[in-house]
Structures are given as C-alpha cells and as structure tokens.
Design brief:
heterodimer; A: 366 residues; Rossmann fold; Ubiquitin-like (UB roll); 3 domains; 9 strands; 45% helix; 16% strand; B: mainly alpha
Chain lengths: 366, 175
C-alpha cells in the first residue's frame, strides 16, 4: 500500500524495541534526503552510542529548490511523520526530538504543529521546533546539527559523524516509511518523486520501486514538449540523456537523491540553464573551504562566459580541468555535488557546449 | 641537524597559516615542504636517539630514551629531549590519522608544536656536546631568530583568511 494511501490518523503506536532495527535492515529502507543511506545501519550506529540521550532530528529543511515532496508530506501526513519520529525516539532512547523545517514552509510547519498538539504520547514533551534557514546546504546532516546546537546552518567537517554524537538526522519521508513499517510490518515499497520542468503535470508523485523514469513521466501527464535530457536527483544529481534516463529504474542504486526528476525541453538552451544553476550553487557555498568558495565561483563564471560570449576549446578544457581540482576538497559534499552536476552536463550536452554561440544559432538551426 | 630541520618545519607551518605565496612559490609548496621536512625531522630524531642509545660510551639504555627524566646521565636535560621527541611523535601520528580524528582534535594536538620546539631548543642548549662553540651557537641562534621572526610576523599581520568576509556574511544569513 502506497505511502500516500495511508490514512493520517491518531492511533496508539505499536510496541517497538531494538529488534525494530533488524526489521529496518530486512525492509531495505534507505534514506530519502539525498544520500540514500541504509536506514537500519544508521539507526544501529546511533543506538550503540545512545545512553538515553539521543537526539532525533526530523529533517524537513528541503533546501533543494526543485523538491516539493517533503513539504507536501508534512502538510498532508504529519501524524505519519510524527509516528516515525516517536518510534525512533523509543528505539534509540532519545531525550530530544527536533522538527527542523524550512523557514518558508509555513503550511507544512503549521500542519506538523497542529498534529503535534493532538498527540498524547510522552514524546510530545520532548519535541521542539527549529526553522531551517532557506539555504541550499542547511539541510545537510551536519548543518542541521550545527544549527540546532549553535544557531548557524553551516556544514561541519567529519569526524565526528552525526551518529557518533548519538544524533539521528532523518528525512521526513524516511520517517513516514518507518511508521508504516512499524504499523503494518512492511514498507510501502515506493518512492516520492518531484516531477519538474517539461512535464504536463509538475509536482509530487509516488511510484513503486522499480518503476522506470519513462513511466514516472507518463504518470506526470507525459512530456509537455519534446524532451532533450533529464536531471536526475536535483541540483545535487546528474544529467542524463533523455533515452538513457527513460530506461532508469527508480531503485536505490540509481542515485535518485532527493527524488527530483527535472525534464529539460528541446526548446531550452542547456548551456544557459547549466550556467545559471552553477551560479546558484556557487552562491550557496558557506564560504568555509577555499576550493568550494573560489572554485565553484570560478566554474560558474566560466560557464556564464561560455553562455554569454560563446564557446571555444580553451574555455571548455579549462572548465574540465578546474572541475577535477575542486572535487573532494570541501569539508562537506557541496563542491562534489556541484562538480558532478557540471561534469554530467558537459558530457550529456557535449555538442551544445562545443557549438554554443552567444546568439544561440545552434538551437535555431537544430 | 634535527634542530635545524624542526625549526624549518615550524617556520613553514607558520608561513602556511599566513598563506604565503609568490609567482615562483605556489602555496602548496609551503605545505608540501612542511609535511616532507616534518617526516624527515622524525627520521633524523630517530637516528639521533638510536645513535645516542647504542653508543657504548654513553651507555644510556632504551628506558632513558623513552621515559622522560629516567636517565642517570643529565637527568633533566635529557628528559627535555625525550619530551620534545614524544610530543613530535604525537603530532606526526595525529597528522597521519587526521582523517579519522576530525579537524578540531588534530588542530588542538598540532598546537603542541609550540611546546615541542622550545623544549627541543633548551634540550640542545643544556646537554649538547658543542653547545658553546661558535658554530653551534650560530646555528641555534639562527633557528631561534628564524622561528621568532616568523612568529612575530604572524602575530603582527593577524588573520589573512580570504574567506573571512564571505563566511561572516553567510553565517549572518544562515541563522
């Protein structure tokens, strides 16, 4: 039964203990925030370090600009998310639950607080609210913890890893799946996707695991215009050629990240769009590490120059060389994500990058 | 020789915090030299300790080389040398394991350098065989002057973090 078919009702929580972690392992549930990390493994690491003092962070920061599924779930299934958080608190013996919700998501926040007010479990008393700043990196695990502890949503270097601090940072969709597992003995076996760009019906859909991207596009009303390529996983994901993306199954190994599927129509200029998004990602660096702050800015500027003044082989080579030098050199994964985005774009849109001219003659002649 | 190397390592370490660079001296050269000379220092120090121990004339024994102030011979001055060496070992080992320790832990331990270097200098002054010969005094003096100048310059020039402004802006906005 799909996640969105579940009723959002008040019902006593099923009894849970440490054995529930084995159930998580067997279910194969993985995180829906972007890293696709196995949920059971994460819970076990926290459980081993908890002395009744674990902290559960309910991550609804949703900093990915194209993603809408976390907001939608908080607005429509708040009890399911709270169920998951309370179950986590019981299994991991938590002293604190923090609802970390994007500061602009008023409806989602109000929905969660309304649901919380209806709860009667003792866990209600340990819940607090934190408004996640509207910055791209604010949803990263370490940034969430840093914000809750010190009021600044910047990622921190690891170690210490969050689980070493007996802290579980878990995406709201993952927690809803946890609740269904505890209540019914099985996870829904589905994934929430946010369909963006050139589809007839943009927005959130729920698909069975194993569904192809082609079927997901059909569920979203089909392409609205002729598609050129697909951005799988949002700005932290990668570009894929349209035909290749359509065959991709919705499974953990496909690297769907936070579940954003963006369809780029033929009518748009990929070089200009990539340059704009690189500019956004450069501006979202938290300026803690030089290679990220200066490197992403240099990459974005180089993309913008190609987009506005036209391409040449030297500029392209430099772009490729710089991209390699930035990767892996930040305390967090922000520069890596941006570089994967750029590198995949340069390979999928190799022809457009090579032939791009300032007046877009390529696009008109094609 | 160990003192000269160690002093060079300390100076390079200070220079790397100040992001010194020029057209013929890229920044990675400072950190690369710092790292390689540090490992070389340890090799020289091991040689220094081993030769001192196995030298039949001194008859120090391994315990004296590893446990501070356990030597019957010049207990205090030798003890300083042992302490300095062991501090350096801690610094090198934590640097090699930095990825497992976390930045903060590594950094705190790395500050021990500021203890290890002067202790090493005093050890040399206290128990060196040629301490007061002109050439040894010149070497020791040059080492002290070099590190001293680098330190004064670091303190005087303050932070040269090129990210300071951008970071402060982001932190203000990400609240």
């Amino acid at each position: 039964m799909a996640l969105l078919d579940q009723p959002d009702v008040l019902a006593p929580l099923p009894p849970v203990g440490l054995h529930f972690i084995e159930a998580l392992d067997h279910s194969g549930l993985f995180g829906r925030g972007g890293a696709s990390f196995p949920t059971g493994t994460k819970w076990r690491a926290v459980a081993q370090r908890s002395r009744g003092d674990a902290v559960i962070v309910v991550n609804g920061a949703e900093g990915e600009p194209q993603s809408k599924k976390d907001r939608m779930l908080m607005s429509t299934r708040p009890h399911l998310i709270l169920d998951g958080a309370f179950i986590a608190a019981r299994v991991l013996r938590a002293r604190r639950i923090v609802l970390y919700i994007g500061e602009g998501y008023i409806a989602a926040r109000d929905s969660m607080l309304r649901a919380l007010a209806q709860r009667t479990e003792p866990e209600r008393g340990i819940v607090s609210l934190a408004a996640a700043p509207a910055r791209y990196v604010a949803g990263a695990e370490s940034a969430a913890i840093h914000f809750i502890n010190e009021g600044v949503a910047t990622p921190t270097s690891a170690p210490p890893y969050p689980f070493e601090l007996a802290t579980l940072v878990q995406n709201v969709e993952t927690l809803a799946h946890v609740a269904v597992l505890a209540r019914t003995g099985a996870i829904p076996g589905t994934v929430l996707l946010t369909m963006a760009g050139g589809v007839a019906r943009q927005g959130v859909i729920e698909v069975e695991t194993g569904t192809t991207i082609a079927e997901a596009i059909t569920r979203a009303g089909g392409p609205s215009v002729a598609p050129r390529a697909v951005l799988v996983g949002g700005y932290f994901g990668r570009w894929m050629d349209n035909d290749e993306a359509r065959r991709l199954p919705v499974v953990r190994e496909s690297g769907l990240g936070c579940g954003v599927v963006g369809i780029l129509p033929m009518s748009r200029c990929p070089v200009c769009d990539v340059a704009a998004i690189m500019g956004y990602l450069a501006g979202e660096s938290s300026a803690q590490c030089g290679p990220c702050f200066f490197g992403l800015r240099a990459l974005a500027d180089a993309c913008t120059r190609i987009a506005s003044q036209g391409s040449n082989p030297v500029a392209l080579q430099r772009l490729e060389r710089w991209a390699v030098e930035v990767r892996g050199r930040g305390a967090c994964k922000h520069p890596d994500g941006a570089v994967i985005f750029l590198s995949s774009a340069m390979s999928v849109f190799a022809r457009e990058f090579e032939l791009h001219q300032s007046d877009h003659r390529l696009r008109q002649s094609a | 020789m160990s003192l000269v190397l160690l002093s060079a390592v300390v100076i390079l370490g200070i220079l790397s915090t100040q992001r010194v660079q020029g057209s013929f001296w890229p920044r990675f050269l400072t950190t690369g030299l710092h790292r390689n000379l540090a490992l070389m220092t340890v090799v020289f120090l091991v040689l220094h300790v081993v030769t001192a121990v196995v030298d039949p004339y001194t008859n120090l024994g391994w315990a004296a080389a590893l446990i501070p102030f356990s030597s019957y011979y010049r207990t205090f001055w030798l003890g300083l040398g042992v302490i300095s060496f062991e501090l350096l070992l801690a610094i090198v080992v934590t640097s090699l394991l930095r990825g497992f320790l976390g930045h903060r832990t590594w950094r705190v331990i790395h500050w021990l350098t500021y203890a290890a270097w002067p202790v090493g200098v005093v050890h040399g002054l206290g128990t060196g065989t040629d301490t007061f010969s002109a050439w040894m005094l010149a070497i020791t003096g040059a080492c002290i002057a070099g590190v001293g100048i680098a330190l004064v310059w670091k303190v005087a020039s303050g932070s040269s973090d090129p990210l300071a402004d951008a970071r402060a802006t982001f932190r203000r906005e990400a609240r």
